Amino acid sequence: MIAIQDEQQAEQAPAKLDPRELPHRYDAFAKVTGRAKYAAEFPTKDVAYGYIVQADIPSASITSIDDSAASRAAGVYNIITPFNTPKIVVTGNVNVLQNTDVVFSGQPIAVVVARSLVEAEQAAKLLRITYKAKPADVDFAKRFGAARPPHRGGASLRGNPEASLAKAVAVIEETYSTPLQNHNPMEPHATIATWTSGTDGEKLSVYDATQGITDVQRTLARAFSIPPESVHVQCPYTGGGFGCKGYVWSHTILAALAAKVAQRPVKVVLGREQMFGPVGSRPNTRQHIKLAAAADGKLLLTQHDTTCYTSLISDWVEGTTGQTELLYDTESLSTTSKVVPLNLGMGTWMRAPGEATGSVALEMALDELAEKLNMDPIQLRLANYAEKDPRQGRPWSSKNLRKCYTEGAERFGWFKRNAKPGQNREGNWLIGHGMATANYGAGRSPSNALVRFLPNGRVFVGIGTQDLGTGTYTIVAQTAADTLFMDPTLVDVKLGDTTLPPSGGSGGSTTAASVCPAVYDAALQAKLKLAQLAIADARSPLHGAGAEDLETKDGKLYLKSNPGKSEAITALIARNGNTPVEGVAKSQLPSDRDTFTSHSWGAIFAEVAVDAHTHMVQVRRMVGSYDIGTLINQKTGINQLSGGIVWGISMALYEAALIDPTYGRTANENFAEYHVPVNADVHQIDVTCLNIPDYKFNPLGARGIGEIGITGAAAAVANAIYNATGKRVRDLPITLDKLMQA
Ligand code: MOS
Q1: What percent of the chain has pLDDT over 90?
Q2: Among all residues, which ones are annotated catalytic?
Q3: 692-718: per-residue pLDDT in tens?
């Protein structure tokens, strides 16, 4: 059972938690039997297929699009271009054919609507597009000198860097870099849009693969100048998001636009190659770090200057320096961020945006400093443990990072490690061990929810959130069941529909922390309604009881002071109109939330084996120990953390989008050449959570876990490779060629 406590009770000792008792995935059966429908899979009568045509040069103005051959092709219904498109409101940084500018290769410039996808794609090849080409910048290295501060934010300063540096006995100064990456959830982006018109005006109904149904609803309403209530968005299942489905991109709006023009439903599904560029990227970064320390390891100066690309569409900064400001207690701090504007698709959130990439540089730099100080890397981190949030001196709502280091080190066998690089050999294999700190912020957004006792004895929970595949259904059912003391298999959950009470977007690891308190509140409200019904009902054995004396358990309402006195909830409902009893709640954010900082923590360890001749790297083991507050569900929680770690391995060894330096197109826009780990690359992953509730943060004591797993993981692997080989590769991914040359 989850321990759910009122915020007033936050100081009480945590209840005993046994995650082994918790239920399995709510949606497992629907998923393994193929009944779970993703956006593109909803049968839609008379649906046509929209194919997005993309620019093939990075900077231009389109002078003409000759569609005469294409429009005569088999099955073609409509061809929409900047020269014939209806005017709509441009929402955010999208390319919706409202002008003829091309600012990156791969930018949407037309939509072909046809009877089938194949016909649409074939017709697209017949379009004759002429451009007036303009000069383009697509090469980060070449344009590095043109970096400028971003339009917003970008720098912080604490203490006196020069004075602190002057006192140091050890200084390291290095540059680390991470490549451009693209999210590739198994389910690519997809939208089905249908317009209907009735007496109350035009209505738009959309199935969309998204991390935020409410945002899709609002954005489409704005684009087509209709009220949000006229837009119905459904997304019962999302096949992975990782940030790319957190933005409403061009194709979603173009699907609705195409449906309007074609006067029939239109389905747009992005091909795998269309996932590289037009729907956001994790910008590449070049990070300069200077660490200066006293002999005891105390950090005197932490300096972190970072540069990433940004598109010409928006000034998007990969916030690598954010965690540098709070992770360690340093005497002085200086951070800056700069951007290099390039003719590439927009940067966007990608799993732990900033923390994933920033931790690569910071945690590798600490490893280098530890060696220079002849100190154990964990000891160095402990010497700089931030007891309070170093930014404003606020207390943490809960922080048990010390325990993560000791617990993780114990399980990994860290203290048996040979700190001297290149010393451990098993035949041809060089063995190495490395570690890093993991961290990610904890946030929550206000969320509504409804809980209904149904006449048939089941309970219905409705909430306008979405399940990315992370386990939202499961924890919603679990929270309702635990609050009502009932069997979770009797709870039905509906998500992913804008007719439900609205909730926040599923991003920034905020979903569980936002949604569960709302479900908890709604369940309490429903319970109270039920109690009031019984109290007022002369035929109920609980008639006249005090509301605070009534509790529900296993389908009954009973008297806490005299548990023998009870009534079946179904009987009570049957006598009272046989209609559902409903509780509705709006979860409030705590009023004292500005007095503390909530953050999640972890320690991540890696063991690698590097072939001494070929330099092939195998990550043999990863051990992660996390302080994420209450672990609501063992199965889905550990699963997310493990997935994050796999992505860390990917960052360290494999993953990079390669930009063609002439045409600015991603050269490896497919899974054959954009490498991600397969099962053979992932060996043992051992994850545990301390499971110490953070009741100051929310009544469940649970912080989000979607993103922390990737943080620190790539640095731990890189540090282990150094320990194995004595070769420090500071440019990720660490591929064979780089190791050979190092
Ligand atoms: Mo996340 S990168 O906020 O989906």
Answers
A1: 91
A2: 707
A3: 999 999 989 999 999 999 999 999 999
Q: Are 625 and 414 in contact (CB under 8 A)?
A: no
How far apart, in whole angstroms, are the C-alpha atoms of residue 705 and residue 628?
7
Q: Are 183 and 249 in contact (CB under 8 A)?
A: no
The mean pLDDT value of the chain amounts to: 95
Examine the pLDDT at 454 and tell me if it is beyond 70: yes
Question: Which pLDDT does position 677 carry in this prediction?
Answer: 96
Q: How many angstroms does the Cα of residue 463 sit away from the middle of ligand 1?
A: 20
Ligand 1 centroid to Cα of residue 355, in Å, is 11
Q: Tell me how far CA of residue 638 lies from CA of 104, 164, 625, 647, 693, in angstroms.
A: 39, 41, 11, 14, 16
Q: Is 722 in the pocket of ligand 1 (CB under 6 A)?
A: no
pLDDT tens string 133-144: 999 999 999 999
Q: What is the model's pTM? A: 0.95
Question: In this predicted structure, which of 89-98, 582-591, 711-720 has the lowest mean pLDDT?
Answer: 582-591
Looking at ligand 1, which atom is closest to the CA of residue 468? Answer: 4
Q: 526 alpha carbon to ligand 1 midpoint, in Å?
A: 32
Q: 351 CB under 6 A from ligand 1?
A: yes
Give the chain's length: 742
Tokens of 714: 């790539």
Pocket test for ligand 1, best of 707, 708, 710, 711 (most atoms within 8 A of CB): 707
Which tokens go with 610? 């590097």
HSE of 79, CA atoms in CB hemisphere, 13 A:
26
- Give the DSSP H or E segment for 334: strand 332-342
Distance 230 CA to ligand 1 centre (A): 28
